[in-house]
Amino acid sequence: MKSFERLMLSHIKDITDPHLDPLQFAYRSNRSVDDAVNLALHFILQHLDSPGSYARILFVDFSSAFNTIIPALLQDKLSQLNVPDSTCRWITDFLSDRKQHVKLGKTISAPRTISTGSPQGCVLSPLLFSLYTNSCTSSHQSVKLLKFADDTTIIGLIADGDESDYRWETDRLVSWCSQNNLELNALKTVEMIADFRKNPAPLTPLTLGDSTVSSVEYFCFLGTIITQDLKWELNISSLIKKAQQRMYFLRQLRKFSLPTKMMVNFYSSIIQSILCSSITIWYAAATAKDKARLQRIIHSAEKVIGCNLPSLQDLYASRILRRAGKIVADPSHPGHKLFQSLPSGRRFRSIRTRTSRHKNSFFPSATIHMNTPQVTH
């Protein structure tokens, strides 16, 4: 069954991809988690370049998201996305009249018939939820609604203290969820405010329905810790802690006199992968001190293995060029229009920035890297 689900997954993706919300990043070709975070940061940082502006970011949490899908509603939404009727009927049948029981120790409950939601662990569940929420979009240019499967983020770009569009969109989200059998988890839905004004006035808390949304100073957004001052020390400290824990295993391997090649492979997959986690998001804006902390782990690994390893700067350069290249090659990518070719066709137009925090974000940095001749060592 899993193999058939994977075939259906590929089939449905090919049909629906051209019709999906551009700001839905899950299960899309040439799009990644990093793209979602980088574009969100670009919206925020570009807006904060304007005097007197600030941003409110709402990280939405759904209660048992995949378990609330209504098959009949999903079938209508799939039809609107040009999915063939036979495929729609198969999915409806797949989600309907499922038998389920609960096991606690040696005790098993009586079976119940379920016709709501998508099965836990189902290969199709994240894609079906993405299609189910495809029509949930923003109507205002000053409010961005980004989605990665069931991770939904509303970004309010506030100018002159006017929050009416942002609050209207959050109220509309509550209404849309009610109409589509989705329940917002107000306790886990939080808001973060990025405000660099010199004398900001106290902001009125946001409410969802009858619940006041908590305000936080940092949040783990799609695996990357973002703080309200848009600095990266907390995220980098988290990566360093994980990498240092894994260095123990590298030292243990040396005790068993493993070949250098095997140790390098272990380092690349287990330690380097942590150091480079979402590196295109934070590296350019990291402080020299934090970069040195990360590089020290690489030096320690070099001493253990006994050979040179790629520096963090080289790893960043290769990854940002590869990521930018994929965006440039995909006209449907929401970040594609940010890479504008100059009339010569050999370079890209630099993105205008007013602050270093914007200049050091992904899109301006990627443009600079792509315009810089690459030296092959």
UniProtKB/TrEMBL annotation:
GO terms for molecular function: 2-oxoglutarate-dependent dioxygenase activity; methyltransferase activity. Residues 1-226 form the Reverse transcriptase domain. It comes from the Eukaryota. The chain crosses the membrane at residues 264-285. Keywords: Membrane, Transmembrane, Transmembrane helix. The keyword tRNA processing does not apply. The keyword Transmembrane helix applies. This is Reverse transcriptase domain-containing protein. It comes from Gouania willdenowi (Blunt-snouted clingfish).
